[in-house]
Design brief:
Blueprint lengths: L2 H22 L18 H24 L10 H7 L7 H20 L9 E3 L6 E3 H32 L1
Antiparallel strand pairs: 1-2
Helix pairs in contact: 1-4, 1-5, 2-4, 2-5
């Protein structure tokens, strides 16, 4: 990834929380816990997942900066959602955790010299080297990808309400 592309992804990463808040403003409250299918996540569960994922991502970024060549902790996101009963978690707390993780990591990313983005680490769920550029590619798209998932949930929720 060249410097221009990296800077663009860092800026997208930095806008992630604001994009999420704007998208959530369009979700009817009664649709927040709607699950399109039993094994799919509701918008509420997606928000809690984002908080867990983003706090893990913030730690991963720091590990990539400080301890290249080390090992990351993996986690099973579906098991976390199920075992931690995401519907019982507070949305405002999850949003605040996401906001802080994104804000502090964005500021950290902007201060890193180019050579830091060549760092890599071992990821237990991926073959080969998990590079900082790969981390940036994944997490710059993480919230936008879930925004689309939330929008699809709302469309399905609206469709089920019309069909009744």
């Amino acid at each position: 990834m060249d410097k221009t592309e990296r800077e663009s992804k860092i800026e997208l990463y930095g806008r992630g929380f604001d994009l999420l808040k704007a998208a959530l403003a369009e979700v009817p409250q009664e649709a927040m816990k709607f699950k399109p299918e039993p094994k799919e996540w509701s918008a509420h569960e997606i928000i809690i997942h984002i908080a867990d994922s983003e706090t893990n991502a913030a730690l991963r970024a720091r590990k990539l900066i400080v301890e290249p060549g080390g090992m990351l902790m993996g986690y099973d996101q579906d098991q976390w959602a199920s075992e931690l009963n995401y519907h019982e978690h507070d949305l405002d707390d999850a949003l605040e955790a996401t906001r802080i993780a994104r804000k502090t990591t964005y500021e950290l990313l902007k201060r890193q010299p180019e050579e830091v983005f060549t760092h890599w680490i071992k990821h237990p769920e991926m073959e080969g080297q998990y590079t900082f550029d790969k981390w940036l590619d994944i997490y710059s798209r993480h919230i936008p990808g879930h925004i689309e998932q939330i929008r699809e949930n709302v469309k399905k929720y609206t469709g089920t309400q019309v069909d009744r």
